[in-house]
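Extended Data, record Diguanylate cyclase (GGDEF) domain-containing protein
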Amino acid sequence: MTYYEIPLVVQRAVSKKPMVSEISADRCTPIQQTSPLILVADDDKITRLMLHKVLKREGYSVVEASQGDECLEVYKHTQPSLILLDAMMPVMDGFECCTTLQSFPGSEHIPVLMITALDDQASVDRAFEVGASDYITKPINLAVLRQRVRILIEKSRLYRELEQANQKLLHLATIDSLTQVSNRRSFDEYLSREWQRMAREFSPISLILCDVDFFKNYNDTYGHPCGDACLKAVARTISESVKRPADLVARYGGEEFAVILPNTEGIGAAHIAHNIQSKIRALKIPHANSDVSEYVTVSIGIASLFPTSESIADTLIAAADRALYRAKAQGRNCLIFSTNC
């Protein structure tokens, strides 16, 4: 179990490994190309030359390998758009090579078109089992080859674009656009998950709620652009005060922020809250119309609980919210720890 420790007083060159078979420098040097790059791996030189010529004529860039282990090395240095892989090669065949390729980072996006003289069901099944995207039999029908290469590369491109779009959507769905910390939806989902996890582990979870004091006055005095800049600075400062990957900083609403601290008891949460408060004061953001300071300050409510299978996370939120309300009622620019969770 990990807790925050609390003091007694709260206050350019990459070396290349030798290869099994000799690889010419032009095969391993990273290629700057705008057309898709295809890696052709086949132990038959005539087949490689034929494929190279056909693919170049179609507008592709081409690199070659004559063995499975060589294919792996060339792949590491070139990151091709597609691999044409012969199933039957000495030392390391195409099946073993394809299996190894699947363990390389990013390889899931690189289609493998297996070339085989075997067209029995077992060989075809094995090709797909080891990660091949499709297969083509020898003797190679060049018209079929061209279409399968084109389709596989296009599918790979569309998949990458879709994945990037999904990542952007996920970011938009979970991150507050202004402050770049987690948003309320992300807060609710994360708190629910961590509450259940802490209940299983019988571990504590703490919540800090922070509210920027007299923020409406700040906006009225300095304008909304300055108000936005203030919120960004506060969010950044809170994030810098929270160190562990499991902790979550979120914009809870308006000028209010929340910090979820799994595996943290009250004294640890209080230490973090004091640190947040001190760092925000140290920013010395002028606030001429604050009733408690000439600078921007925050009021903080803290709550800590040991979740159980019968309890709900809303209990923790309510306790922290009550503590925040008391902090405001007692003059703001202070923190209150909930004692009636």
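Summary. The beta strands are 37-41, 61-65, 82-86, 112-116, 134-137, 205-212, 248-253, 256-262, 298-305, 335-337.
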